[in-house]
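User: Hi! I'm working on a homework problem where we have to compare a predicted structure to a textbook description. Could you give me the structure for the chain below?
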Amino acid sequence: MARLIALDMPASKTFVDLVQRAWSNGDAVLPIDQRLRPAGKKMLMDTMAPSEIIDANFTASSLSNGRPMQDGDALVIASSGSTGSPKGIIHTHSSILSGAQASASRLQLSAGDHWLVCIPVSHVGGFSVIARALHTGAALTLHPTFDATAVQDAMKNGATHTSLVATALSRIDSSLFKSILLGGSSAPANLPSNVITTYGMTETGGGVVYNGQPLDKVEIKIVDGEILLRCPMLMRAYRDDQTLSLEDGWYATGDIGEINENGKLSVHGRQTDLIITGGENVWPSVVENSLASHPIVNQVVVRGTPDTTWGQRVVAYVVLNDSAQTSEEKLLSDLREHVKHTLPAFCAPQQIIVVAEILRTSLGKVDVRALPSP
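Assistant: Happy to help. Predicted structure tokens:
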């Protein structure tokens, strides 16, 4: 019976060696997020129930409450989603291979490439870089964390491909890479030609849509505005043995989007992100793009908050440029007018909250819980 092996260590060559050893033995692996505190690790261990854990000193310990895996299972990724509690997503060797093959075909990858891992391997975006390199036989450099100087050095030492999030991309000279896969959050405007936006989730083993175009064997359709996917990269089940609710193989992502006449997918956001104010639908990403074009706005996040009059009101959290000096009243007036130049008036924020920074997760997503209350 296959076992689950927890790997409690940063990304390294030894980490990859242990993954390959586990797979050779017919076992699956669970990469542990190195930022977790002891209590968080205990919760993860209790929920995922691995049979063995190998720590950063490469010491292996057997665990008494381990639950077996199914034959063919390769990977468990802990994804908390919006609930904060860990949820184990199981991928098989088949789903991982399908993703690596499709990516290799689209990017025309070969053994002559050199991949850099600099985002956490406890997330599917980091682990999938390892899968691509192993599939093609490419060279692989692994960094335990993102460090702009170390990334620049890796490029000078031959790294040709990597995966990044938008905040990391902004800190490096991206021109030395052949290709950069960008995921995790809304992509900034005017991306270099070597940067490829990706759409996917842990359930699909990472990105399955590149620059709006589905990879080979990936099907997309829109039903009542929601994006549905059907592909061989889909997860097998959750660690608690629950399976995805699929209709004829289609996975309802919970994301809202549309497909244009050229077959290109545009993603508007999560269904739960939609703001309904005065009966009108407002997508935060659309308002964020408008506000970000104002010269005094450095960063911005838009969210909805309950309102007794409008149902919800549009709230913008903004980081201002250093030179910006204005009163709260004038700031709200100026930014509302700026939005109304390009969007309907109901999209204009009804409240502006100035913050020193917008905290993000390691995948570049906004840490919503860190935003101040309106």
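For your comparison, note the following. The helical segments are 13-24, 38-48, 93-107, 124-136, 148-156, 166-169, 284-292, 328-340. The chain has a mean pLDDT of 91. Good luck with the assignment!
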